[in-house]
Amino acid sequence: MSWRAGTKSLLKRSSPGTLVLRIVRILLLLLLAVLLLPYLVTPFYRTGQPVSALMAWRSLRGAPVTRHWVDFGAISPYLPRSVVGSEDAHFCKHRGIDWGALREALDDAEDGEVARGGSTITQQVAKNLFLWSGRSVIRKGLELPLALWIDFVLPKQRILEIYLNIAEMGPAGQFGAEAGAQYAFGRPAATLSPREAALLAAILPNPVKRSARNPGPGVRRLSGTYMARANTVTRCWRENRGD
Predict the structure, then answer these.
(1) What are the b/e assignments for 186-215, b being 16+ CB within 10 Å?
(2) 4 pLDDT band (50/70/90 cuts)?
(3) Is residue 199 helix, strand or coil?
(4) Phi, psi of 46 (to 5 degrees)
(5) Any residues with CB less than 8 A from the CB of 84 and at least 6 apart, and which?
(6) 175-230: per-residue pLDDT in tens?
(7) Rounded CA separation 111/105 (Å)
(8) Taking a C-beta distance cutoff of 8 angstroms, is the pair 229, 85 a contact?
């Protein structure tokens, strides 16, 4: 059979409806692969120095990105305390999602109030590593089960270590504790004081509009609150250097 005859025979057997179904099937398989990829990759993040989706996107656009990975034991112990106290007070108790805080955030949203604290640190790790920023029901729907999975396969200390190395902590592409500390205070993350750590925690919702380098009254007020909270947070991580 010639090539032309074989092609005609194939076209006769493949109706337009069949071709559409094949295309839809392929697209669904690709979508499933994309959705499953974070679940397959996450266990490998027990080690290494992962980058966030935002960092990768900024790099692709040619925007500045500064990140110097710092192991957890080389970060000032005041910073994880302040961040947990400000972002996720029940970090050591929940399994990836703080359902009580989530309900409160939903109630505040229904009342037209802007609430902070609905997302746990684990949810933010899920969003930063694999998803996108901005308010979206679809993103939140993807984020919740992924946060549960991250908490299941990664230790609490590792989750916190990743967060402290991928969170945006400066106005011009500074990511992670080291870049944030160097930009704001001209010193490494290992030497942050309680006040400096609290200032970095206070700008985490929006490091572009809030500054730890030149803090305004609101940031200074929040940092005072977070300094107090840092002394009372429950810790599920080691603070010994070199562990």
Answers:
(1) eebbbebebbbbbbbbbbbeebeebbbeeb
(2) low
(3) helix
(4) -65, -20
(5) 91, 92, 121, 160, 230, 233, 235
(6) 999 999 999 999 999 999 999 999 999 999 899 999 999 999 999 999 999 999 99
(7) 10
(8) yes
Residue 93: how many CA atoms within 13 Å on its side-chain side? 10
Q: Is residue 143 a contact partner of residue 126, using CB atoms and an 8 Å limit?
A: yes
pLDDT of residue 14: 55
Question: Quick one: tokens of 163?
Answer: 């967060």
DSSP 67: -
Q: Residue 242 has what pLDDT?
A: 45
Q: How many helices (H) and strands (E) does the chain have?
A: 11, 0
- Is it the case that residue 6 has pLDDT exceeding 90? no
CA-wise closest residue to 116 among 204, 216, 27, 35: 204
Average pLDDT, the chain: 89
Question: What pLDDT was estimated at residue 109?
Answer: 60
Whose structure tokens read 């979508």?
Answer: 31
8 Å CB contact between 82 and 177: no
Kindly report, residue by residue over 9-25, the tens digit of the pLDDT. 544 555 677 888 888 88
Calculate the CA dihedral of residues 79, 243, 154, 190 and round it to 10 degrees: 20
| Alpha-helix residue ranges (DSSP H) falling in the chain | 3-13, 16-41, 53-61, 78-87, 99-110, 121-130, 137-153, 156-166, 176-185, 194-203, 217-230
Q: How many CA atoms lie within 13 A of 41 on its CB side?
A: 14
Among 133, 189, 125, 128, which residue's Cα sits nearest to residue 159? 125
In this structure, the chain runs to a length of 243
Residue type, 45: Y
